[in-house]
## 1
Amino acid sequence: MNILSRMEELILLSVWKLQTEAYGLEIRQHLSELTGQDLSVGAVYVPLKRLKKRGYLEAWDSEPTDERGGRSKRFYKLTQKGIGALQQVKSVQENAWSNLPDIGFDWTPAKS
Amino acid sequence: MKKPAFLLQFLEKMLPPDLHHLIGDLEEEFNHNINSEGLAKARLHFWSQLIRSLPWFILQFLTWNTTMFLNYLKVGWRNMKKHTGFSLINVFGMAASLSVCLLLILFILDQKSYDRFHEKSDRIVRVTFESSSSGDMFATTPASLGDLLKKQYPEVEATVKVNGGFYGDFRYSEIDVSLSGFYASQSFLSVFDFDLLEGDIQTALKDPGSVLLTPKSARKLFGNEEALGKTLTKVGNQDFTVTGIIDDAEKTHFDFELIASYSTITSDPDYVNFFEQWKNTLWNSYTYLLMAEKADMSAFEQKIQRQITANFMEEEGSQIARFRIQPLTSINLDKTHNNEIGFVIPGIIAWFLIGFTLVITLIACFNYVSLTVARALNRSKEIGVRKVHGAHRSSVIKQFITESVMIPLFAFVFSIFLLRWLLPEFNNLYFINFMEASVDTSMLFQPEVIFVLIVFTVIVGIFAGLYPSIYLSSFNPAEVLKGISNTRKISGQTLKKIITVGQFTFSIIFITSSIMLFLQFKHLADTDYGFNQEAIINLELKDVSLSQVKNHLLRNSNVKSVSGTSPVPGMGAIYYEEVSSILGDQKIDAASFRVDEDFIPTMELNLLAGRNFNPEMNSDSTNAVIISTALMRKLGFKDPAEAVNKEINITNEKNITTIVGVTENFVASDLTSTNDPAILLFQPQKTRFALIKTRPSKIIPFANELENLWPSLNSAYPLKYTVLDEELRDNPSLYVFIDMVKVLGLIAGFSILISCLGLLGLAIYSSENRVKEIGIRKVLGASVNQLVFTLSEEYLWMILTAIVISVPASWFINSLWLQAFSNKADFGLMVHVFGALIASLLAILTISTQTLRAARTSPVKNLRSE
């Protein structure tokens, strides 16, 4: 199983967080708030589509609404596989962060 | 309007439907932002989103469209394979018409490439003028105009003066060669980029008496000797020094075998004044200008008009109505200009050819239209399903256009093969040879030519597919999928009829016209000249007198008679004399011939009344004429006997002249007219040709003797003679006629072929569709003959309608060009009947292949499956 990228991890987490409101725009806004950057449509949609293709997410379209000019929303929901992937990335991360020695700013590499 | 609605719609068009929810996101965000942050910020945000996502959007757009395009290709290819017969009909029809189109495109591309090799070709123009008397355009302008314009207008950078009429016999040691070309000023070599293979480009045309030869002329005169620096003699004129060898391999409107320096004609002090006079050089001088970069041509053209009144003050008024600036590269295929300096294909010929090709293309496109629309029912389910799955009408249109472009692209491959066969035929046409306008096969391999051809092919495809795709895409999926609409409603019956009738109308017109052209050609070729051209040698007298020739030749046993004339009748060259009757003031232009007393017996003209000229009578040379019956009628005399001894006026002759005889009409100028008014004047001293009648079948031995005899006549010129009946047969206008018969015949053949292919397609389809009906009819006792008739009836009506339309149309169209001929073939109704018959027979033959098969199949087979 591939380890999720940071962006993918964040997207999966926002879908989890947003629950029934997890569609394109909300996800993007949530992520923008989270990262402090104004993310572009493509930057969010491309990983979303990839995650769906890998089976971490499932998606369905809502009925069209007036507010959106007669276009539907695409909602996303985590799958079991997606949750597994999130847990994996979390444990990898925790492992990576644990048992780190002192950062040692005063240490310099030996000159050869 | 708060929303950037246009942009949203544009995005919706661009992006695949799968991504439309993203546009929804954008719009929702925008609406949301208006409420929370105001319009300006919302807009800013929207644009920032749009611009940052644009590369990705474009990528999506491209992938989506490629995917769809590949799908269209796949479906199109499957559809072509499934209906191989129809596809082949379309492909072959298209191939036939495309090959003609491609040939024409090659021809025009080739013609348009003339004079493009000059580096400054886009800045070089020629000044031409419109005659005020006839309204015709002339390629010539007064000789002094160029210098005048250069002096007065800063936008003229350089001027090239060219004077036509440098031709004659040129002699080097023992060799005589007749060559023609022109005089050109020194700037000719600097403004135009002709290569000098030998010689100095700076000085080659500087000194009087300098001449440039083409490699071919140099070889003719000097053989393998070095030509540069040698002296050659223009017989009867002066000596010239060869100062260069000029390359004439490039495509140019100039036609020359040699070029003399302009200073040759202006070095004569007597001529300087002559050349200043506009009326003297108006018909023979050419002015080319090199314009400054970015010069305003139309403004310049306006400005120079005032030169006419300033310089051309003649009692009889200006000959020039207006000057025109003609760009160098559009000299070819432009409006016809008289006194052209070389061979130029007039635009009108190109337009005629374009017209024919357009009709052929239309006929082929119509095939596609009628066959596609007729079979619409087969595709209607597919269209319905596509639409139900969310295809826009525009994508259905795209799909059908893609399909319709595929057909001509396949046809393109076939048409290249056809072209390989057509091209040599085209190049063999007389006028193509004559104009040196042959299209080189190597053009077919030039990338830019291939590009143009393919672009044209695609355009034809789009054009052909336009109507069918719009029509097919209009189907309502609910109706077609439920099967509510029936064949008759959906398959465009009226359209099919109109198209078929149109195709056959054109085909019949083409067929009839080519038959008429051919008959007219036959008629002209068989026309009796009114004189006997057999066993006559036509000798150019040059500096030898007629009496000298007579003295020498009449002693020869092979010679029957010798006569002098100027010009020789039937050769196209003509002088006119203005004639009027003594009473009336109506002036008649009569073709005039200066002849001696032996002209009538030698040519065996039929003298109807009066007598021949008599050298014994002094008065004959001043005031006796013999006229043709046509002139006699025009002068108001009822019969020859009445005209004899009557007096008439000839404007250019001082004396009142008497008609001493009347001859039967003969061909004065050329075969297009057998009854031109003609007048014979007794002026033996002014004759320029000797017509020598030999004894029967002695013409070849005599010609050999003539070669030996000529030196004893002490002429400065080389011997020039022709055999009269051969020369008459070599008539260029007859050859051009054969060309036209060939071109039109091909067009007719192709158009009837394509139309029949279309008909075949329709017949196949309708007999397939009516298989059940035929079966039932057969079971109920219809005979094969009755069935064939039932199936063909519809088509017979269409062809009959086409005949009814085409007969008067072709009669009218052909009467237009026939007006130019007073010597017309008698066509009668048979030509039209014949043309219509050919077309109908071919059509019936085509249909019957299908109807017979359909009518013969056993009803058991047809009715069992259900």
## 2
Amino acid sequence: MSVALHRQLGLTDDEFAQIPILIGRAPTDPELVMFSLMWSEHCSYKHSRRMLRRFPTDGPHVLQGPGENAGAVDVGDGWAIALKVESHNHPSAVEPFEGAATGVGGIVRDILALGARPIALLDSLRFGTLESARSRHLFTRAVAGIGHYGNCIGVPTVGGEVVFDDRYEDSCLVNAMCIGLVRADGMLRAAAFGTGNLLVLIGNRTGRDGIGGASVLASAELSADDEDKRPSVQVSDPFTERKLMDCCLELAADDLLLALQDLGAAGLTSAASEMAAKGGVGLDIDLDRVHLREEGMAPAEILVSESQERMLGLVSPDKLPDVLESCARWELDANVIGTVTGTGNFTARHGGEVVVDIPASALTDDAPWYEVPRTPGPAATPLALDAVPVPADLGAAWLDLLGRPNIASKRWIYQQYDHLVGANTIRRPGGDAAVIRIPGMRRALAITTDCAERHCELDPRGGGRASVFEAARNIACTGAVPYAASDCLNFANPEKASTGWRLAEAIEGMSEALEAISVPVVSGNVSLYNESPARAIYPTPVVGMIGLLEDAGASVGHAFAQPRDAIVLLGGGAARLDASEWLGAALGAPALPDLAGEAALIGVMVVAAGAGLLRSAHDVSGGGVAVTLAESALAGGIGCSVALPLGRRADETLFGESGERIVVTCRPDALPALRAIAGDVPLAVIGSVGGGTVDVQLGDATVSLDLEAARIAYEATLTEALA
Amino acid sequence: MIAVVRFPGSLDHDSAVRAVEAAGGTATYAWHADRALPAGTRAVVLPGGFSYGDHLRPGAIASRSPIMDAVRRHADAGGLVLGICNGFQVLCEAGLLPGVLRTNATTSFVCRQVELEVLDHDTPFTRDLGAGLSIPIKNHDGAWYGDPADARIVLSYGMENPLGSIASAAGVANAQGNVLGLMPHPEEAVDRLLGSTDGLGLFTALVRA
């Protein structure tokens, strides 16, 4: 039995029925293919668009909010920083090396489309546990793909995070964030304008790779026959990407481009229709002028191919010779493939015949949207602490925790990434946030990606808040002011169960937290359908955040610095085992993050760092205060001696989490000044730096961690599991 | 004037220019397709990167670029040539330095700080360097392979040998000492803000030439 073409393409019957109403006739086959891509969840956000309006997107420094290829904020001296996070989850699950590599390529071109020079990359990864051979394979290959691409294009991969959990066994997440630098007055937009202006397609030849990537692959659940979808995964060519970067930045610097757009999901269809719809103009495209990798490609294939490393520039006719000369110098193919018209229609010709002629806005603005069911999930039940066994040997438990994959050193990963190229990396991977110099400025940027996925599973609103605050604390630990955010909302199938509610709740929680610290969301991405018949992922709203440091030379690291420095616990968070790394499961009812308390703590950090009081700062997150102290000690190569109130239970005090806590160190004589700055934010002097062990006194007992044993436990895990 | 050669896929050319400037010199770019070095060139830097995407072998295609004939003439006349990472690979492929660079013993890209020993202070590059340098490496094919008897091994990784080089070689010079290739990136170590200034001496030597 044959399935109707529109269903094969992923369109519903209702959506299919809408098309003739919009265009006044039945669509041609190429038109139908274009609609199926542009109306996919991946391109149209049809299940999430309305909810996304909740995010705070304004701020005095916002130059470009959501809606362009990337967002951008003013960082002073006439410079702007562009930022965006994007997912490449489904391609990576099908073909991890190319999927992850092209994910990097895609986000880099989003930044490039603003005319910005990409200056940093981060990767937020979620995979199944390391006990799974399949997950080890997927993870190892994804890391190799990210490294291959990022290293070869010369953009440093300065940070990121990874969580291993069985819930990602069938649906791994590969999110990439890119940061770019551009003159605030030289930023390019994607909107086409000016009848007679020319569309120039620059870069790779168009082939049959990546056809249907946005629809059949990215907007559907994964299943057992996904290997058949490998042709939907794109193939990477980072060498061409680098030339494309060099060439487009040269064209932008020489003022030769009127607009610039990258070709990503849905290829030429998406790029051109968005340019036309944003500018309220039409485009007349001659598909015979598109440089092809193979002969005999059908019009629909040319229109929706997701071949990588291609950009679409808008050029005025008098600048065309200069543009083509520059492309030739960079040994890049470039062809005029179309012109701007006044019709408002997306018109495409092939072999002299018109094969597509539809209003551009029908593909973009008229895409359907759906109110998703918001069936609340079950309320979280508080953890029965009595049911959690007390570890017999707290020291052994501490070592065990340091060696767990979600806590252990990620050196195995980041040593495979060039995190230095460009000579701007001030704080390398391994700390709370990466810090990079903004070339040509005294200021620097702190950058991080974070998500509290277990918390989101139990309470999406609280987890949404926690994800934002985790990112903000990581930024603040370097002394930087949280400045702007991007996000990637990775969720399960929105048409099922409580996913819609979780999505809305997470967005609400994220928005509340962002408002509390006055950080706008300037760009973002949604990845749905991350589930298989066996498993759905945790709600995973990844937050990418940048912070601004006034003085690049004044950033704070997480390493203990000097013997006798005072160790101070800042913030009012309570140590709880609910959803903790020590518990190792999404169980319990984590406390709802306190908006005012978290915001006040972040404010104190920024002021204290700005006053030069802090010798180190490290956020208390996975593994609790015990892991925070151990990591600072390992990074500094020096131990410490600390006393903590015993609390309800020693393991809870040591390994409990919940946010709103940061461990800082300072010279003992700086304590009065620190207290004055802290004001109402709880402050406890808990010990001092020094020695070759990390000693924590709890009531009458002392738990001790030998630094060398800790280093072995912390460093060995990933190397041994993945070698 | 220091000429920094730019190939398609060069990545560290801007950092190399900044390093020359940090050493008190001035730098300009030389384009791979040109047949002559810029007028007034006193010394040449072949920067790091992935010239031609490492297609065929790292450095193989770049070593056949038109500009390389000019670099060879400059070297033959006794001019200083510094090849960093991919530049080292290009110099070996061009036959200006002995040996080749093989895939790292880890079979992976390696990016980290390393401690180098300066074994040979009798070259124009190393004359004023101290005994040790802390400089990062970042490469996938950085294991030098050659006959130590025929090479001047100027820089060594010491006992650690993280990439699996013959004789733990990190940097190799020609017999005359005016052509030096090294896998570590001195241009990433010219600014205290980034952790080390141990790379500056190599650029000071170029500027002095």
## 3
Amino acid sequence: MPAVRTVEAMMLGKLDWSAIPFDQPIPLIAGAVVLVGILGVLIWVVVKGHLPYLWHEWITSVDHKRIGVMYILLASVMLLRGGSDAIMMRIQQAVAFQSQGYLPPEHYNQIFSAHGTIMIFFVAMPFVIGLMNLIVPLQLGVRDVAFPTLNSVGFWLTATGALLVNLSLVIGEFARTGWLAFPPLSELSYSPGVGVDYYAWSLQISGIGTLVAGINLVTTVLKLRTKGMNYLRMPMFCWTTLASNLLIVAAFPILTATLAMLLLDRYLGFHFFTNEAGGNVMMFMNLIWAWGHPEVYILVLPAFGIFSEVVSTFSGKALFGYRSMVLATMAICVISFMVWLHHFFTMGAGPDVNAIFGIASMIIAIPTGVKIYNWLFTMYGGRIRFETPMLWSIGFMVTFIIGGLTGVLVAVPPADFMLHNSMFLVAHFHNVIIGGVLFGAFAGFEYWFPKAFGFRLDDRWGKLAFWFTFLGFYVTFVPLYVVGMLGMTRRMQHYDVAAWRPWMLVAAAGMAVLTIGVICQIMQLVVSIRNREALRDRTGDPWDGRSLEWATSSPPPVFNFAFNPDVRGEDAYWDMKARAQQQSLEHGGPEYQDIEMPRNSPTGFVCAFFATIMGFALIWHIWWMVILGGIGAFATFVVFAWRDHDEYVIPAEEVAAIDRVNLEERRSLVSMAGAV
Amino acid sequence: MAMTTTAGRAHADPHHIGLVIEHPGPASKRIVTAYGFWVFLLSDIVMFSCFFAAYAVLAGQTAGGPKGSEIFEPRNVAIETVCLLLSSFTCGMASIAADVRNRFWFYLGMAVTCGLGVVFLIIEFREFADLVSRGYGPSRSAFLTAFFSLVGCHGLHVSAGVLWLLTMVAQVFAKGFRADILRRMMCFALFWHALDIIWVAVFSVVYLLGSGA
């Protein structure tokens, strides 16, 4: 018998039947539903014969637009998962007054940990990275990002991380430590299960994906710009992309190192953050927040860029104070690295240190304020069109100001001593992340959807979605501010204070309103796909846009632009249109030429396949499988490096044929406008 | 679709600064690749800096175990340093050979680089094995944790570098000095030199300061 057990341990590590939570119906049913859903989609895809199309056109695609769309799809699906967690938490806190509620503590703890992890790493990150991928090369007037195949690798590694997090729902457990897994709780002695390992390995793997995306986009913005696209002519979104990705490159390695240290503690008995042998818990706090605070700006800066594009387009004006906006963006980029200690003023670093970090945190509100004023002055005197993306932008300005003000409030150390880890804090960061990042992601989604798919989204459902989300947000989170002031701490599984109860009920009602908003958004997608012929965008410029992504068809051809655009100033496409009206949009340029494009490659997908195997094996201590996954990943790289043809040529005639269709549409538009 | 208005921006230079140097367009593949790899190296250095920071924080936490001065062997470290610095030189030779497409000098340069790298790794491995056998493994104290992690992280990078080096040689052997392979060679050289820079920091912060303390 012992021999059998040893063989089992060698083959399966810590994995056995007890890993499946047969005694817990909620994760089991949720897992079953998801599994049935995935299987259903897979069977449908195979039966309908879509598999070759999916494989050739999407899974192996190295086209930045396709990869961007897949990032956003991943984010949307994970938003539903993270949102379900949120609904469960709100219901728990609404019912768990002087009772245990319906979620046992160990399950509730997993849910709030998973909610935070998923929303930041697998919703907000892929959403903004997806939008940047999709749009930045188009705005810069180039054919692709700097490293197209790596781009695919980055996406698939992110997807691997998401897969592992969801796997923890049915095989084993997720971390119960909160979304940043603070030691010593996350050390082996207090969290002996696989939850923290799921957390750490999925973030390690997706973190590599994010780093790859960051390097790629920094290089793209700095080295691949079309002729005449000087730095101070780049659209604002490109600037914020640059700032955000510089932060990724500088901050994500810190996360990688920190989680590596935690894993060394857990796997090999190291003493980075243990209570014993001289380990230092506060070092974890410093390291994780040295990543964590820039991360906030990694998320929100691209959103600022989206708002800049949207507000200027729908006000029919150039962005007010473009240069001050650039300056503010880069200022935030730098200062964001100097405020991390405000996450633990209560550590006891002393009044001087706390004062310095408090002041630095307040200073960061200044460039942010500059931005708000710039958007307001852009709208001032403009001809404002209240399309859905504009609604999200205005909703953002109102909401984000409130979130920013409460942020300045908790940046004051004495106030923070009162509010640290209270529901007030929870309300504050949801206020800025939902009001800033999520509203920005939705604005970008509505704004650029026609560019990606060639038809607009339904207006009515879009506006409904906005109003429900906007109102739902306030009904949910204002009560959290209040209970925070009343002394309620975060992450409570149950409570006995009667004064909090009504507010928790209101917050739960708000969650219902938010859910209606999500349903509206899904309805919008369904209705728009059905009516896509009526909503078709033939010109490629549905909003009367100002930057180069609108200068090509919707969806853009694989090569983006038949000719590399020649930029003569800010708002490049606006300029072109103005000039074209006088010259009737003839393209006096050179003849069409052959275009070389990178070939599709399964490298990213295969890499992620091995990464998934390796991650899973590491979590369950199945060492032979770890080695197998490692060899597989290395072999994939060698095979990729060995290929002889990494590009293919689109002949000039084909380029011409594709380009002429769109050019005709544009010409008729300009001549119509000229006639008016 | 209101295209009637030309309001807003009509000309390119709103502040009349004049003298704008026009951006010439996308950079060449060689530039883009090397630039991207530089950015990666910077991020890698940030990761190392975390391990340096952890070492600085934990260096005094010996928990009753040995101090740095009691376990470091300056002679070994000197040999390691010479190996790496020499390998940087031979790696440079191999790069030049690749640029002028001289197979003999390329193979020779890479072979010596590989040999020096392997010697470095063997010495480091023996140092680690010796410490562990004496009961001074990474679990002994926070100081040893930080020491093994920082130096080991560099060692892992050198191991990956050796693997990359062999792959590089195999590629040149099979496919010759193709443009894409030369770009990879450039990245490899950057990587190898960066490891040297990090070793200089490891040498100074860990061994030099540690031996004195």
